[in-house]
Amino acid sequence: MKSFKIPEATIIRLSIYSRYLHRLMQQGITTISSSDIAEKTGATSAQVRKDLAYFGEFGTRGVGYDVESLYDSIAEILGVDKEWKLIIIGAGKLGLALSMYEGFRERGFKNVGIFDVDPIKIGKKAQGIKILHLDQLEEVCEAESPDIAIVAVPGEHAQDIVNRVVESGVRSILNFAPRVLTTPIHVQIRNVDFATNLELLTYNMASEDRR
Amino acid sequence: MKSFKIPEATIIRLSIYSRYLHRLMQQGITTISSSDIAEKTGATSAQVRKDLAYFGEFGTRGVGYDVESLYDSIAEILGVDKEWKLIIIGAGKLGLALSMYEGFRERGFKNVGIFDVDPIKIGKKAQGIKILHLDQLEEVCEAESPDIAIVAVPGEHAQDIVNRVVESGVRSILNFAPRVLTTPIHVQIRNVDFATNLELLTYNMASEDRR
DNA sequence: ACATGTGAACTGCTTCACAGCG
DNA sequence: CGCTGTGAAGCAGTTCACATGT
C-alpha cells in the first residue's frame, strides 16, 4: 500500500463509493464502471479513478471494477474490516439515536458503553446495553479499551469529557457538541455540527435572495 | 457586499467564529483580535482576516474587532438574522433529538412541523408541536411554506421524501439518511453522514497502525 | 506600535486528455 | 474498442509578508 498524503475529500468519497457498492452487491450486480459509480455518488469518473489510484490498481481496462473485490478493498482501506469499540457519552435523545444507529453494527463498530449523569436514565437499557453513570467512565475504559468516544453532551461539558476520555486512552473522538475542542496531537477529533450545516443552507438562501 | 465565489470552507469557519463571538458577548468582552479568534477556533489569524475580507472591512487597524458588531455582521452574512421555517421528517430518536436541539431556536429557526408514519407516534408532542402523519406533509407545506426540510428517515425512503418536499416548494434540505440524493439544481441539499465521519476516524487509526 | 487588510507565492485538489492494456 | 490509470495543466484555497491605517 502506497503511503502518500491522501486528501480527506478522497476518504469521504471512498466511504460513499463503498456504500453504493454495498447496495450493488445486494442487487447482485458484479461489475461496475467508474462513470457509473461517479453518476450515482455525485462525483466524476476521473475523480473516482484518481481516488482509487492513491491505493493501487483495482480495475480491469476495458471492463471496469469487480463490485465485491472493490468493496472489500475499500473496506480494508477505510479500516472497517476490523472491529472497533466505541463508547457514547450522553444518553439524551441524540446519544440514544446514535446508540441505535444501524450503520454502526453493520460496519463493525461495537458499542461497549453509554454514559450519562441523569439518575432517571441510569440503569435503563439502550440497544441491549445498560446506561451507566459517568463516574464509571474510567473503569469501563480500563476494562474495554475503546477506540472511539462519541461525545453527545451539552457544549459546556464537552471539553471536560474529552479530557477524561483522552486521559483514559481513547484515540479518536466524534464530537456532536457545538464547540471547538482541543486534544493532544495523537488524538484525532472530528466535529459533526448541526448549526453549521444549517447555516450553510441559510447562507446560500440569503445570498440568492440578495441577488 | 461583494459577490465573488466564496469558498464553502469560509462559510463553515464564519459559523464557528460567530459561535465564539456569541460566547465572548456573554462574557462581556468587547474587543477581540484575529489571532485570538484563530486560536480559539482552530484557524490561523490570516485565515480569519481573509475570510472576513470576502465580505468587507470589519476591524480597526492596531486594535482589532468590536465583538458585538462583528457578531452582527457575520449573522447577517450567514442569513441567521432572518427567521427560517423548517420541517422535520421522521420522528425517530434522531428526528426528536433534532426537534429539541437548542441551537435551532437560538439561531432563529422555527419548527413548523414534524412528520412520521408510525401511528404510535402521531399525535404525541415534541417540543410543543404535535407529530403529524406524513400524509399531511403537502398540506402543511402549503400553509406554512417552510424554507428547510430536515430528512431523518431510513435511507430507502429518503429519495421519496426529498421528491415530495421539493415538489412542495422547499428550497433547502438537510439530509441525515446515508444516501446520495438527487435534487433539481435550484434546491440545495447537504448531507450529515455519521458513518462517513466514523470511517474517517477508522481510516486514520488503521493508517497509523499500518506504519 | 500594533493589528488589520491584501497582493503574491505557494500548496494541494480537481479536471483534462491520452497512453496503456485487456 | 472501451475503460482504466496517470502525468500534466488548471483552478481554488491557504499561507506569507508587508503595506496600510489608527
Short description:
Chain A is an alpha/beta fold and 211 residues long. Chain A has helices at 8-26, 34-41, 45-53, 67-78, 93-100, 102-106, 137-144, 155-167, 194-210; strands spanning 31-32, 59-60, 64-66, 84-89, 109-116, 125-126, 129-133, 148-151, 172-175, 188-191.
User: How large is the radius of gyration of chain A?
Assistant: 20 Å
SSE string of chain A, helices as H and strands as E:
HEHHEEHEHHEEEHEHEEH
Helical segment count of chain A: 9
- Give the N-terminus to C-terminus distance of chain A in angstroms: 49 Å
Number of strands of chain A: 10
User: Strand-residue fraction of chain A?
Assistant: 15-25%
Shape of chain A: globular
Count of folded domains of chain A: 2
Name the largest protein-protein interface in this structure: A-B, 61 and 61 residues
CATH topology annotation of the largest domain in chain A:
Rossmann fold
Helix percent band of chain A: 40-55%
Largest sheet of chain A: 7 strands, mixed
In CATH terms, the superfamily of the largest domain in chain A is NAD(P)-binding Rossmann-like Domain
The computed structural class of chain A is alpha/beta
- What is the class of the largest domain in chain A in the CATH system? Alpha Beta
Average pLDDT taken over every residue of chain A = 95
Q: Tell me the strand order in the biggest sheet of chain A.
A: 6-7-5-4-8-9-10
